[in-house]
Amino acid sequence: MSNTVASNKDIILAYVKAIEAQDFKKARQLLADENFVYVGPNMVFDNADQMLTFMFSMAPILKDIDARRIIGEGDEVCMMVDYKTFFEPIGDVRVALWAQIDNGKIQKLEVFYNAAVVENMLSVDGELPFGKK
């Protein structure tokens, strides 16, 4: 392991701050180029660029991200945040990010939140996203 827990915490914090600032370039610099994995409650990405494209498509509703707590052990860091939105049906969403850091980059990112809120927001004409009926 080439990172310290403190620097791993700094990496995930920088990533969240880049998302909040809508700085795609900075966020991308913090993600691994190869073998990247994102696992969320209703989607999986194995490509950092595709994941960020999706994340940044939601940027217009982002009001603020409040970091609540960061804990780390070895190459793993968990950060709890409140994702605050301008979109009334969603309001604020409590999110947990669990990251595995390797060589100063986020290699794996698992994200936990109430997926029903996002699915309902993305519902169009009664059709839910992600192939659900």
Automatic annotation (TrEMBL):
InterPro entries: NTF2-like_dom_sf. It comes from the Bacteria. This is SnoaL-like protein.
